[in-house]
Design brief:
Residues 219-357 form the FIST C-domain domain. Pfam families: FIST (PF08495), FIST_C (PF10442). InterPro entries: FIST_C, FIST_domain_N. By secondary structure, the protein is α+β, with helices and mostly antiparallel strands. The chain is built from 8 helices and 26 strands. α3 (100-109) runs parallel beside α4 and α6 packs parallel to α8.
């Protein structure tokens, strides 16, 4: 595959990392700051650079390109496949009356299944129930098709996220990119690096991704008690203390980030489902733990690969970025050291990550993880 990359800063044109190569019909991934992607000219600008292309946009909580983490920019990665092809479908949560499970089912059903290797999802991140979306996709997905992706971000504002396919970015969009080809090798993985602490509690009342009660007490009140003064900074401060959710006794725990709170109803809205009866603990992390988690995620993605990756799409969580602060680039640098210096890297910091656990086929929604999807032809 042939890959070119570019960066756009405010009020400036795209600047390519090397001389721009003419690509015939590339997949163009454009990840950027929400304010910049709200420009009415952004689609036309990219289309002018790549007239015959598939252009996918998504807003971020930080942009990843090579081994750098940027803020307030737009990063562009254009990929021309030599032996493979892509099919892209889109849908909007408003068309399904916020039934994200049905949306996932419908979206997956649109893809021809022959030679489909992988589905990569760029989803709106403000109001979607990511786990319900994945469950819908998984219901009609063939066993041999892998799935990964992430939820768009909006820095730490949590106001609105945007995505689109071949049009200006807008709210509520779910974009699915299907990768086809016998010679494609695609692997994905995730890992966190967060540690549970404090008492384990039982979810006694919830509905989908809305959490009402823990141990029969209002969950939001209990959570605010743990946060102390940081409760005044909710929902942003919740990114530093996500929840570990164990749905079944022998299952892998899932990390859930609080996307928003409802003080009037005394509830917490999480990025994915939190079923009643699940066991919950608070989590915390350190810079070193997060870096170690990123290294392990990269090692898992490389495990068993026959070919070195040519492209790596990295989706990491905004919560990790907040903990890392000035050292955020360290996790990207360590990932690059594992996957190789010749691999093109792109991606973004998100409100949620999609990938299977190591050794498993079924995709899950994660928070606070580093997720990699590696491609080669």
């Amino acid at each position: 595959m042939t890959i070119v990359q570019a960066i756009k800063k405010p009020n400036e044109p795209f600047v390519f990392n090397e001389k721009r190569i003419l690509l015939k019909e590339p997949l163009v991934l454009v990840f950027g700051n929400r304010y910049m992607l709200e420009s009415e000219h952004i689609y036309a600008e990219v289309k002018d650079l790549f007239p015959n292309s598939h252009i996918v946009f998504g807003t971020t909580s930080g942009e990843i390109i090579d081994d750098s983490v940027l803020e307030g920019t737009v990063v562009l990665t254009a990929i021309e496949f030599k032996k493979s092809s892509v099919v892209i479908k889109r849908s909007n949560i408003n068309d399904f009356k916020n039934n994200d499970y049905k949306l996932g089912e419908s979206l997956m059903a649109e893809f021809p299944k022959e030679n489909l290797k992988h589905l990569f999802i760029i989803s709106e991140g403000s109001s979607v129930n990511g786990s319900a979306l994945i469950n819908g996709l998984e219901k009609v997905k063939n066993t041999g098709i892998s799935l990964s992706g992430g939820l768009c971000g909006d820095d730490g504002r949590f106001e609105r996220t945007l995505a689109s396919y071949n049009e200006n970015p807008k709210e509520g969009e779910i974009i699915a990119i299907g990768f086809y080809g016998e010679t494609l090798e695609i692997t994905s993985s995730n890992y966190g690096g967060w540690t549970p602490f404090g008492p384990e509690r039982i979810i006694t009342k919830s509905e989908g991704n809305v959490l009402f009660e823990l141990d029969g007490k209002p969950a939001l009140d209990l959570y605010k008690t743990y946060l102390g003064e940081k409760a005044n900074e909710l929902p942003k401060s919740a990114l530093l203390y996500p929840l570990s959710v164990r749905i079944e006794e022998d299952s892998e725990p899932l990390v859930r980030t609080i996307l928003n709170i409802d003080n009037d109803k005394n509830t917490m809205i999480l990025a994915g489902d939190v079923p009643e009866g699940s066991k919950v603990q608070l989590m915390m992390s350190s810079v070193d733990d997060i870096v170690s988690g990123a290294i392990h995620a990269a090692e898992l993605a490389m495990k068993g690969r026959e070919n070195n990756p040519e492209l790596a799409l990295l989706i990491s969580c905004i919560g990790r970025k907040l903990v890392m602060d000035q050292r955020t680039e360290e996790e990207i640098e360590e990932v690059k050291s594992v996957i190789g210096n010749d691999t093109f890297i792109s991606g973004f910091y998100s409100y949620g990550e999609m990938a299977p656990f190591s050794g498993q086929q079924e995709c899950k929604l994660h928070n606070q993880t580093m997720t990699l999807t590696l491609f080669s032809e």
